Amino acid sequence: MSSAYWKQPISEQATAVHEKVVSAEILAEQVREEIVGTDTDLRAWVELSPAVVDEARRQDGIPGRRPLRGVSLGVKDLIDVEGLPTRAGSPVTSSSPAASDAPCVSRFRDLGAVIQGKTVTTEFGYFSPGPTRNPHHPGHTPGGSSSGSAAAVGAGVIPVALGTQTAGSLTRPAAYCGAAGMVLAHGSTDLSGVTGLSESLDSLGILTRDIADLQYVYTAFTGRSPIVPGRSTVRTVVVWGGSDLHPIDPAMADLVDRLPDLLERADVETRALEYDDHVRTLADDHVTVMSHEAAETLDEVVRDHAAALSPALLDLVDAGRAVRPADHAAALIRRDRSRDLLAETLGDHTVIVGPAAPGPAPSGLAATGSPVLSRPWQLLGCPVVVVPGATTDSGMPLGLQVIGLPGRESALFEVAAVLENELRSHPVVPV
After folding, report:
1. pTM over 0.85
2. pLDDT tens digits for 195-252?
3. Of the candidates 257, 206, 251, which has an alpha carbon nearest to the alpha carbon of residue 385?
4. How many helices (H) does the chain have, and how many strands (E)?
5. Taking every pair of C-alpha atoms in the chain, what is the biggest distance, in angstroms?
6. Can you tell me the mean pLDDT for 20-33?
7. Domains, the chain, ordered by start
8. Where in the sequence numbering do the catalytic residues fall?
9. What is the CA radius of gyration of the chain?
10. Distance CA 306, CA 329 (A)
11. Which H or E run contains 251?
12. Cα dist. 49→55, 85, 109, 192 in Å?
């Protein structure tokens, strides 16, 4: 029986360890075996923790119930883990191990999680790809920058992983790899110990295999339940097609067209988003803010190591240096005004649903796909939940994103659960 527990829902894994049906040590060893057996093809991991068995044994010996006891965790290699280096997808960073955990990692340890190791990221969380393959087709990108975390979760190798997002760094790979994902509201989490790119934009993210696991982990991590059982709060969903920002693949366009029917089955009304001008401006302003702040963040790295950095990263810094401080400030002012307007548009019990990416993962490994559909919402600092379950007729995942306002995460999970159930019941979207 124990051989199957690491594949079970996260709550059941933790309960089984607590009740001594299976040990954290056995779970950790079995996940490690799966990682080692699959990573030659998947290439999702940078470094595995040599202390994983000792950490699992410690969890077995701690009294009391912990919500993630024995559950294996992958950590994106922008986030400090004590005893492991943080290379940030770059050869110019230090190979010395981190002296301490980032606070978000410490929180997961306190909840009982067992850290398996560090997952691949693109260079400094930007566009230059790492070696990771898409778990559904090795010739397609897994997205970025949370490439390894999304691929490992999407492949079923690990139940939960940490990522980050500055543009579309979590939403896009979650969609491409068929994982559930959540970008936490900007500013809601201590990001010390995390290698950032843009102070106004960087957010923590969580990836799991499905929405139920995602809700469970979010509840444990934040210490509050986003759902009141038996009480529905969402009456209206605003549907956004995304075509105002980027051409949409026919399969994704068809999925978006089906949203009113899917949601009607749960007695949820839909209406179209009337926010297009703001969305386009926000997407442009996101580029301004990210490039300007990235140029400041990476200034010393570029001065000291320019020859070893990718052209894409150097171009980002060059663009950021050309942004006037006044233009950066103006973009943030427009952001604040748009956030107020969005609050008026949505009200207390409304969320936005739209494509998490323009379509399925593109073929090829030289690029990570376009993040443009995440830019407006990331600039606003919105929490976002990525819903898996849909696939093209060729078997490639399609992900939807549910977007809301900080403090209204309950509505995101409510709608995400409804959509996931519908998508997994009828997964194929013909092209």
Report:
1. yes
2. 999 999 999 999 999 999 999 999 999 997 655 555 567 889 999 999 999 999 999 9
3. 206
4. 14, 12
5. 62
6. 96
7. 2-222 (3.90.1300.10)
8. 76, 145, 169
9. 20
10. 28
11. helix 250-264
12. 10, 10, 14, 21
